[in-house]
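>> received
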Amino acid sequence: MKKSLRHVKILTILALLCICAGTLWAVEAHVTADSMVYHSRTGDFTADGNVRIQRVDLLIMAPTGKGNLDNRHVTLSGGVHITGKWEQEPVDLKSTTLEGDLSENGWYSLLGGVSGYIGPRSVEAQELKVSKTAFEAEKVKKFEDSQQKMFLSASSIKGKIKNGETSDIQASGNVVIIIIGTDGQKTRITGSNAVYSQAQDLVKVRGNALAVQPERTLRAEEILYSPKSGKMSASGKPQVTIQMQDKKGNSEDERKDS
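>> returned
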């Protein structure tokens, strides 16, 4: 009997895990699967076939999984799909594997072919780590915030979330930023590193920075841009190129070709 309690194998769909977080109200996370092995002495478990983790409004699905009840850590693999709501925001994310902490202030780390969205933020990257207040992404093909009207790609991106909005971003490595200003004008800025602050209404790009707007470009070592006002300033050998047009609206280059 003692051995059976320490090592239990279940061949039917079973609700195995119930984790409580918080001091006044319980937050439960339930794990179900076609089959499971649970070690009561260590808290370890493995699950196989239609693994599903339900935590409040968040649902995580994968073919296989493992974890530990005591430290609330889980690992899912074989193709992960996350749906539902994360901090009251709609979520739909896919990746190859996932590692997560199911506690109230936990985090989720997605690895391999990450794609999908969390609220207004959509992403395509090799890695993504998210918590209630922050996110990190590696080898980012696309990070787009429809609320901030901002698109980024970079080797790595780190950001903070406040009141459901992206408040700060740090990007490094082959940075590309495309911003739609309040006047509808699109600005594309590239460089080695970039910092965005919602509170300061400021995008700062350093390292061979290049800003492109309709009919003009700006090169400098550092470029500062305000999305709300549209104001742009530069330092470090700034150079402005203006695309001239004739009365018919043809650019100087078009006139040369005619």
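>> The helical segments are 2-6, 252-257.
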